[in-house]
Structures are given as structure tokens and as C-alpha cells.
Amino acid sequence: MRKVFVIGIGAGNPDYVTVQAINALNKVDVFFVMDKGSDKEDLVRVRKEICDRYIKDKSYRTVEAADPPRDRTSSSYESTVEKWHEQRADIYEQLIAQELGDEDCGAFLVWGDPSLYDSTLRIIDRIVARGVIAFDYEVIPGISSIQALAARHRIALNRIGKSIHITTGRKIAEGLPNNIDDVVVMLDADCSFKNLPDSEIDIYWGAYIGTEDEILASGKLRELMHDIETMRAEARLRKGWIMDTYLLRKPADQ
Ligand SMILES: C[S@@+](CC[C@H](N)C(=O)[O-])C[C@H]1O[C@@H](n2cnc3c(N)ncnc32)[C@H](O)[C@@H]1O
Predict the structure, then answer these.
(1) pLDDT digits (tens, 9 = 90+) for 6-42
(2) Level-2 CATH architecture, domain 146-249
(3) pTM for the full model?
(4) Would the CA dihedral through 190, 206, 198, 163 be positive or negative?
């Protein structure tokens, strides 16, 4: 039966690729690469570098497909994402059906880990639910940007016996959750930390973590927020894209 691997490749440094991922990479006949536009060429390049570095037999093929653009004008986030997932499912289904022979193995290489803010597994679920093509699939975990952030700042994410909360910039724009001391924020294009009233919060911030462009900053949010905003804007202008993640840590006694 056809097989599809969903392989977490880590959040940017080819050294993050696990032995399990390398073993899976070496079984793949066809890699499916979604082209996200010229700004994200660097991300496609990292995937190619990983294949060059870790795959012994170079007889694999790479098939590129254009990522459908997401409608950013619609007022309903959920319905926009729903439509986008459906379009992606159409494309992935076609790729699997047309590019993989009955005994072939394909792979989607997922940035970081597939379980975190990535739609690949939801899209595969859709294709399975449609029941049009038969295939088996396996998920290989990767080092997420959250683990990389914690390692680069040399911190544990939770405090003893406490919870952590993982969320998006869009969500913390509405305020930090109550009763949670440690909040990891991803996908924040608007520096939503600027709007938080608590002046004693610490921030541990990282952009392009694990890559040669990595930028790290940590300290009191109130002292760093404007510097981070400036660094972020300059880096984004310089490279054409940015990925940053941060931990917000409330004081221990709150
Ligand atoms: C679509 S999510 C994908 C997350 C990914 N699956 C993971 O496990 O890290 C993209 C977000 O992940 C974070 N991110 C991914 N790679 C990063 C990196 N190298 N440095 C900092 N943040 C990163 C950023 O918050 C970015 O907006």
C-alpha cells in the first residue's frame, strides 16, 4: 500500500533532525513541497538541505505544488481556514494519487513538530475521511520552535507543579489567561505583548531560532518590548519574513 510520512524536521537547524526522521527520510520516493512564495524560499531551502545532507540514495523525487493563497480579507477566521484546508486537501490528495505508485512512499516535511500550529495532519485526516484514495501514514515528531526557544534561553517552560499555556498572538491580544503563570506565544505578527498591562512580566523571545540569523532577548517585558518590536521590524525587512516565538512569565507570587 502507498505510504505517506509526515516528518517533523525541527524548527530551522538541520541538526535538529532526529535519527527517526533520518530513517524515514531514507525510505521516501517522493517529497511533496508546498511553495509558499518567494519570501519563504529560505524555508524550502532548509528542507532541500536536509534531504541532501541525510539521504544516502539520491534517487528520490521532489514534487512542488503551489500553496493556495489564504483569503485575508474575510471577517470569519474559522471559515477562511476551513476553505483553505479543503483546497489543500484537494491538492494533497491529487499529489498522493498521481505521484505515488501502489508501493511508493511519499513525505510531507513539516517545520518544527507536526502537532503544533500546523495543518498537515488535519488535511491528511480530511483525505482519509473522503475515502477516495487508500494509503497508510505515519507521523514522525520533530523539535518544535518552543523546545528550541527553551533550550536557547536555557530555561524550563513550566515552574514546579505549574501549567504552561501555548497560544497565538491573536489570542493574547485579548489578554493573558488567568491562573496561568507561563504563556508561550507563537504566530504573533503584531507584537501583541505590547498591550499587556502587567509591568512585572518577563519575556524570553527568539526569532529564527536555531538558524544563523537567530536573535534572542530576555528580561522585563516593559524594558524590552520596544526594542523587540524594532529588532523584529528590521529583521523582517532585511529577510522578507520572520518567525518568532516567546515565553511570557508572570512573577512567581501572582
Ligand atoms: C505555523 S507555526 C509552525 C510551528 C511549528 N510546527 C513548530 O513546531 O514550531 C509557525 C510559528 O512557529 C514559530 N516558529 C517556527 N520556527 C521558528 C523559529 N525557528 N524561531 C522562532 N519561532 C519559530 C513562530 O511563532 C511562527 O510564527
Answers:
(1) 999 999 999 999 999 999 999 999 999 877 665 567 8
(2) 2-Layer Sandwich (3.30)
(3) 0.93
(4) positive
